[in-house]
Write a structure and sequence with these properties.
The complex is a heterodimer of chains A (136) and B (304).
Chain A (H helix, E strand, L loop, with lengths): L7 H20 L4 H18 L2 E2 L1 H4 L16 E8 L2 E8 L5 E5 L34
Antiparallel strand pairs in A: 2-3, 3-4
Chain B lengths: L1 H10 L5 E4 L18 E7 L12 H36 L6 H14 L13 H4 L2 E3 L1 H9 L3 E7 L6 H12 L4 E4 L2 H9 L6 E5 L6 H7 L24 H21 L2 H11 L7 E4 L19
Classes of the chains: A alpha+beta (136), B alpha+beta (304).
Chain lengths: 136, 304
């Protein structure tokens, strides 16, 4: 594992801000502005330094107002049907912006697949996924 | 040449490239013999919190499933059998539907539309029992948001897990015991007459299921949510959230007073004791070799 990761301090800052936003909301559910400010700062840092974030982190941040999404507190999450498929719809309560995720039992994010992990480089068989085909 | 240029143009502005000489996916050869392309590794910030359900022991799981099944059978199945026969033509019509919460709306519409002479009325046979339950993910979510539930049971064999993952945080914030029971849907859905039951909730003031709820609650393990944990650490399965809130408010008031007096050190001390800072988690990813890319502006096209 590469010990020295570039911009490690930046990552630590991002992580700290993210956790601080959670703590703020845990202690004072009304004070969403502060959590939003922290997340906005986090997004700005990531944008400026072009740092990549895991989808599990990005999904909890609203893209419109960059507030921290906690189901039941700052966002609602419903199962909806559209065009014969089942989606999970997450709606931010502050800016009413909704995100849709398809409920496909076979779908797996690239980051979660085993061949994406650094330790499993040997298993680099090209995984056939429905959304990709090899560049010729 | 081609792939290298491609790589450079796409990721020129990304400062986070850690080159590693390792067994890399073979670059499409452009004639010259090139062994391996340096493998680029992308680092991404991983979520410091890991939200997962707590594990349920096997005996508890069997007990819960068994009691629920027996209870539903004794209360409902005799009555709800008619609905089962009714639902078959419905299921054929609506093929895309799987969520049980939606089916119930349809059934209630049908109830009004067709006043059948015979006893096989479509819909729930015992409405008052049905009202004490919250069946279906949407209904359980709504009831949790309004804090109407005593107990929440979630099916564990859900794919993808995102369907029910939001219930963890919701139920922890409302201090409602909840647990994930594998095979919940498989066992209970046919008993009630629905296609699948991914989430089940018992509303407050339930008379028929009070015994079951009281029997199941002690067996439910407590949920762990890192940032909310300190608030609810002593409660366990208690439903008295207001008490907790008052206690927390007192603690917060004192801590804020102290913060105002001693600026830095005290603040750090309080933070350390209240909620532990999770260590930084970084995920290293290998980019997808099969990723669809837009053809570069140069004439060397990549066919899509």
């Amino acid at each position: 594992m590469a010990g020295p990761v570039k911009d490690r301090e930046a990552f630590q800052r991002l992580s700290f801000l993210y956790q601080a936003a959670h703590c703020v909301l845990a202690q004072d559910p009304e004070n969403q502005a502060l959590a939003r400010f922290y997340c906005h700062t986090e997004r700005t840092i990531a944008k400026r330094l072009v740092l990549r974030q895991d989808p599990s982190v990005k999904r909890t941040l609203c893209r419109g107002c960059s507030s921290l999404l906690i189901p039941g507190l700052t966002c609602t999450q419903r199962q909806r049907r559209r065009r014969g498929q089942r989606w999970t719809v997450q709606t931010c309560l502050t800016c009413q912006r909704s995100q849709r995720f398809l409920n496909d039992p076979k779908h797996l994010l690239w980051g979660d697949r085993p061949e994406a992990q650094l330790g499993n480089q040997a298993a680099s068989a090209k995984h056939s996924s429905p959304h990709s085909h090899p560049p010729s | 040449m081609g792939p290298c240029l491609l790589g450079a143009t796409l990721r020129a502005d990304c400062p986070l490239r850690v080159f590693k000489m390792a067994a890399a996916p073979q670059a499409p050869g452009r004639g010259s013999v090139r062994k391996t392309r340096p493998l680029t590794v992308k680092t991404s910030l991983n979520n410091p919190f890991v939200l997962c359900w707590s594990t349920l022991e096997r005996e508890d799981m069997m007990f819960i499933l068994q009691t629920l099944e027996d209870r539903f059978r004794s209360v409902g199945l005799q009555k709800i059998e008619d609905k089962k026969k009714r639902k078959k033509p419905l299921l054929i019509k609506e093929q895309g539907r799987e969520k049980c919460g939606l089916d119930i709306g349809l059934i209630e519409d049908l109830k009004e539309e067709k006043p059948d002479a015979d006893q096989q009325a479509s819909g729930w046979t015992s409405v008052h029992v049905r009202k004490q339950l919250a069946l279906g993910v949407n209904e359980v979510t709504r009831a949790l948001e309004r804090s109407e539930l005593l107990l929440v049971l979630v099916c564990k064999s859900v794919k993808p897990a995102i369907i029910t993952s939001h219930l963890i945080q919701l139920s922890v914030s409302r201090s409602v015991p909840a647990c994930q029971v594998p095979r919940l849907s498989e066992r209970i859905a046919p008993v009630i007459g629905l296609k699948c039951v991914l989430a089940l909730g018992f509303r407050k003031g339930t008379s028929d299921f009070a015994d079951e709820v009281r029997a199941i609650i002690p067996r439910v393990p407590s949920l762990n949510v890192p940032w909310l944990q300190d608030r609810i650490e002593d409660s366990g399965e208690s439903i008295e959230m207001e008490l907790l809130e008052d206690q927390d408010k007192e603690i917060l008031d004192t801590s804020f007073e102290d913060l105002s007096k001693h600026k830095r050190k005290f603040a750090e001390g309080k933070l350390g004791s209240a909620i532990a800072l999770q260590p930084l988690k970084i995920k290293k990813l290998i980019p997808n070799p099969n990723k669809i890319r837009k053809p570069p502006k140069s004439k060397k096209t990549i066919l899509k």
